[in-house]
């Protein structure tokens, strides 16, 4: 079984009892999670449940108050707020991130432009792009260096239905080539596409009954 082979490999992301509070308000109360190569895991939760806080801690962008996060491999991160500059073109963003990642070619980035169907906008400035196209660029910037661990915060916001389906095809392809993918969203529409779905509630992760056996621990 695919899941058995996958789970013979150790986790690329290990989270133990992570806690975080803002002033006196606890948001995370002891979150534990493991993510292995070839797993596509979802976390859902209501607005304000702490999903973005958790993702920022996993990405190393925010410090936890206590607990442990251990990550190995190249990280790709697509934050909820786009990281784009309005005056730069799509191509300029690709070249800036190419330098930041230290990669020699834009081959994968060009593939992603094609797969997400926005190659025609390559030389347009971000200020002239629609919200959905900006999000396509945000996602491309997280994926263009072929990450081994991918953290996605509401990655399909603003996508039309066709692009939304393309996103899931892309996520499945990444999973199949061994990437560990974590998708955070306030919607649980996509449960059947996931190895495991957790709900973040009351500052803790709860495994939901929608969990399937595809690539999941057994
Ligand atoms: N920098 C901050 N200072 C104080 N409180 C914060 C800060 N960042 C987030 N919070 C609070 O922490 C809680 C969790 O916020 P977070 O953005 O992690 O939730 P979320 O689940 O991602 O929400 P959404 O689905 O609306 O994006 C919220 O009540 C929010 O107001």
Automatic annotation (TrEMBL):
Which parts form a coiled-coil structure per UniProt? Answer: none
Question: Where does the ABC transporter domain lie?
Answer: 13-217
GO terms, molecular function: ATP binding
Gene3D superfamilies, from UniProt?
P-loop containing nucleotide triphosphate hydrolases (3.40.50.300)
Keyword Repressor belongs to the record: no
Keyword Protein biosynthesis listed? The answer is no
Could you tell me which CDD domains the record lists for this protein?
ABC_DR_subfamily_A (cd03230)
A Pfam entry, by short name = ABC_tran
Q: Which InterPro entries match?
A: AAA+_ATPase, ABC_transporter-like_ATP-bd, P-loop_NTPase
Sorted keywords for this record are: ATP-binding, Nucleotide-binding
SUPFAM superfamilies the record matches: P-loop containing nucleoside triphosphate hydrolases
Quote the PANTHER family the UniProt record gives.
Answer: ABC TRANSPORT SYSTEM ATP-BINDING PROTEIN, ATP-BINDING CASSETTE, SUB-FAMILY H, MEMBER 1
Query: What protein name applies here?
Result: ABC transporter ATP-binding protein
The organism is Streptomyces venetus
